[in-house]
């Protein structure tokens, strides 16, 4: 019996893409470990996961917030924040032909005896330690994601956690 070698042709682009995904995943796992973020908490997700969630649910990604906006230490972290409390009221994360998903409300957080109305300000004051100590934040008021029609701004749905993201067909 003769054995023939099998050659697999892989493009450089494919190798680079797989390497990028692996490095991003490793960096994300390091971030989760360092900042005590468990897999159940979907406040921060890899860009690719958010894009896939939206696409699978029939939405088009518009713009998300990265942790790098809050602290320079997160510049190389390819993560989108999926917690609406990190967004400004009315900030749009996704859309369809007929409707939009936007943050709604103003968070109020009590941390180290003071109240903060803006997470960006809280992180500016305490640095990345504030993210590490998110479990110590006392949420006095929270934001939600809302889905409204583009035409007349009618409320179609409301949700707080990313895992509750409805499909476009469920709300339109």
Molecular structure report:
The chain has 172 residues and is an alpha+beta fold. The chain has one domain (12-164). 28% of the residues lie in helices and 24% in strands. It has helices at residues 12-34, 47-56, 119-126, 129-132, 168-171, and strands at residues 44-46, 60-61, 65-66, 79-81, 92-95, 99-104, 108-111, 114-116, 138-141, 144-149, 155-159. The strands form 3 sheets. Strands 2-5-6-10-11 form a 5-stranded antiparallel beta sheet, with helices on one face. A 3-stranded antiparallel beta sheet has the order 1-4-3. Strands 8-7-9 form a 3-stranded antiparallel beta sheet, covered by helices on one side. A hairpin with a 3-residue loop joins strand 5 (92-95) and strand 6 (99-104).
What's a concise summary of this model?
The protein is of the alpha+beta class and 172 residues long. The chain contains five helices and eleven strands.
């Amino acid at each position: 019996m003769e054995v023939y070698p099998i050659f697999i042709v892989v493009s450089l682009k494919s190798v680079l893409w797989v390497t990028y995904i692996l490095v991003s995943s490793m960096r994300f796992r390091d971030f989760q470990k360092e900042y005590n973020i468990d897999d159940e908490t979907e406040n921060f997700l890899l860009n690719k996961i958010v894009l896939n969630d939206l696409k699978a649910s029939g939405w088009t990604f518009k713009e998300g917030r990265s942790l790098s906006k809050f602290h320079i230490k997160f510049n190389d972290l390819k993560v989108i924040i999926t917690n609406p409390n990190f967004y400004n009221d009315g900030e749009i994360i996704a859309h369809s032909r007929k409707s939009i998903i936007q943050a709604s409300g103003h968070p109020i957080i009590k941390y180290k005896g003071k109240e903060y109305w803006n997470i960006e300000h809280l992180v500016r004051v305490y640095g990345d330690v504030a993210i590490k100590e998110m479990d110590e934040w006392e949420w006095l008021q929270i934001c939600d994601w809302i889905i409204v029609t583009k035409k007349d701004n009618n409320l179609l749905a409301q949700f707080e956690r990313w895992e509750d993201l409805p499909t476009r067909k469920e709300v339109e």
